[in-house]
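Quality-control log, excerpt.
Job 1 of 2 completed; input and output follow.
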Amino acid sequence: MADRDASLSHKTFPWFRSGFDLEGVVGFLAAWLLGILLAMLWEPLFWLGFIPGVIILFATRTAERVTPQSVDHVTSPCDGVVVSVEETEAPEGLRMAGPAVRIRIASSPVSTNNVHAPIAGAIDRIECTEGEPKAVIAMKAESEGLARLSAVFSNDNIRAGFVFASGGLGPRLVTKSDAGDRVAKGKTVATRRLGGWCDVYIPARSPGACIVQPGRTLTGGETILWDLSLTSVASETQNDYAAQATAGSYSDNTATVATTAAAAVASPEVMPEELVEADAPVDEADLPESEAYAADSQPTPEVIPAPVEAEAEAAVQATEEDWITEPTPETLPPEVAEEVSETPDFEPDADTSSDAEGDDGEDPSTMFERLRQQARRLAGEDDDQENR
């Protein structure tokens, strides 16, 4: 773990934070020398020593990390990518009672080989199991024959453990601490070479919550996995109910809370009395007969918009002006004029006219016919005067 207070201004390349273990440097030089000796026999054999040397060099790559020292955080023990976050039973070797939250991390073969302590505290137990040589690559975390490293850390606030799995060929997992040691958070407690899998277990009853999701890229010793300061509302409610159950009033308070919630959902907002009276339905039985009949028989008047009403009035006025100013024709149509010319002149007698004026019981159809003949005659006389 790098010193957080150390200044980087004196460094030529402050961004270069990686390095290699002494074992890796020695192994690479040995493989390179072997390649040179083989090349003396036949030049292509040089690659048989050089390529393994490069693999050894990358397998021993390290990096300086600055770990947040807050007691409320659990950091990632290695580099990698989060594969899953789920609740399951912890392995028996970790000795964690009850369900635990498992954060599974996958690391590539070229990732740094440091294994960091996730929390500050004591190492309750640490155990390393050698793998089988035939298990060269750890394709799955549950595969048989893999080398495994398990450790449990605890302090006054939380308990956490991890299980590393890697290939069984060669010294892939090496411990650097023992059980009972007290370590600072971020300290390198073991070495893992050529990648593999890492399962971090935190008891489900622990305070706080996981703050990483699948797909998140992690930096060993720096990325925070668990925040103890986060507490969900559900957990607070469960704690309150547990306290009430201990006091013996859980059922009563639960019923009270349920009743209050139901009343809050079902009760509508209180309306003013004026609106309630105005919206209340009227019972026709309580009204007099005249008012009830008027209420049923009177239709609801339709409200005509002002622009439509103005257009209608303008159209009516224009029609009236045309009807008033339209001149009355003085001549009859040709068809009517021909009928009038064929009709003989009719000259009413004085007696007839007097009888017509004095006889109130005459047939109305006869009187109308006479008036019509007089109109035709007058029209014929006017036409004759115009023709002359």
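Job 2 of 2 completed; input and output follow.
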Amino acid sequence: MDALQSVFNNREIALGGWVIIAIIVGLFTKAGRNFLKSVLPIVFSRKFVVFYIVFLGFFSLTVLYLYHAEFWDLSLLKDTVFWVVFILVPLFAKTIENAKDGRFFAKLIKDNLAIIVLIEFILNFWTFNLAVEILAIPIALLFGGVYAVASREEKTVMVKKFIDGLFVIFGILVIIFTLYNLIQRPGEILNIKTLKEFLLPILLLFMNLPVVYGLALYNTYEQVFVRVKGQPKEQQKIKRLLFRFAGINLTKVTSLKNNLMRTINLSRTAKELKQNLREFENYLNSRIGDNYMKRPRFYILSCILMIIICLLGIIASTSTVGLKDLVTFNFVLDIAKMKQIVTYVLSTGLAISISFLIYFIGFRKRKYEEISQIKKFALHDLLFFIKYQNRMLRDFPSVENPQKLFAQYISIIYDIKRESDKAIVIYDNLMTNWELEAIKRLQTYTASLISTIGIDDIERYCAEEFAIFYNDKKTTSIQNEKINIFTSDIERDIKKYSEQIKLCMEIFKISK
């Protein structure tokens, strides 16, 4: 046990023990064996195996580089394996589902560089006694399951609040325990080994981003190529044309996927596609929402690149490595003098680049405020209804009280559907791709909810009349002992609709 605790902390030992028990139980139960039989063929399919090989090859190169840079050693093997299992594998699943443009990767980097990452690292550095950790894991799972069930219905909301309180108390105890250890034993965390453990996940994430980006690109291209039609030879030409058009630009490939009616669906031959791609390129160039911030982004990235070049140049110039080690020319140079000149030049470039970076960040902010004001003016009615609906959202919609449902949701949904239709038709080129996609999803969810309700013109109904209609439809709907299909569909559609309202609030930065 001492040898085990010298490698793993108590929480990791407890978690590993419970995972092993769960696997053993799963293997010896019929449900577990059936699950493995259904999952294993998918996990080890040909496409996934190829991807595993590519990933493991690239990942091995990154670890090898860190080893030669004298950053990585065997003491970090455990942290590396944990990062792959608990960070990278879920990240791949998230990438396949959500990676559509650079915003996904920018958010990913921002989340991993946030101060909360440092706080979580410190909170997880010290653990409780092994017996406490072994008991804490099943208790936490039990409370988590109860919390998930209690969050579904209004009658169990008090249970949810009680568990919320327990989580808060436990969190406070963990913080007190960590602060006590930090004060009593600061040397355990303030050392090079701990710094490496903290930096390792960040370095691995940055160094493996090309593989993650490649996965997102491959997945998106696959969704585009599956829609290609025509003769086999013509399909190959069409695919090559599509790749030449979009290349490795994920945003452009996603635009192709979202606009199949403009390109692939209209093309049976490569010649037709070439003409459609020219028109599609003109369409993309005319999109104000996507192109308005291009110049500020280019300026800022250029400044950041110049700052990196200048910093690297200054470090190289002031280092003890001779220039002869870096070049192959067979002549003598005054290295000291050259380093002095290069240092002056790069120092000046660094100062200029920093000044321009500050200026262009302000320039980008001003441009963003300009386009935001234009959008708020153009989409005023839609954003107003979204904001109003967000105020009316409830954790548990009153599907058993149609008059409340009418006041909180139904009377607003038709307005949002009408304004969404108008925004998509009139202001298509004013919005960015992700803004337009959010509005289209909102349009879809409102249309689905209206279809479930079964009323085309809600203005002919007041709350009392709607209640009569709603109750009649509920009565005639298919029903078993516990579930009424009509109210169940209403509840399901409202949940999707509510989530999309919250997402629109976030994307359009609507103040509450």
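Post-run check on job 2. Residues 294-368 form one domain.
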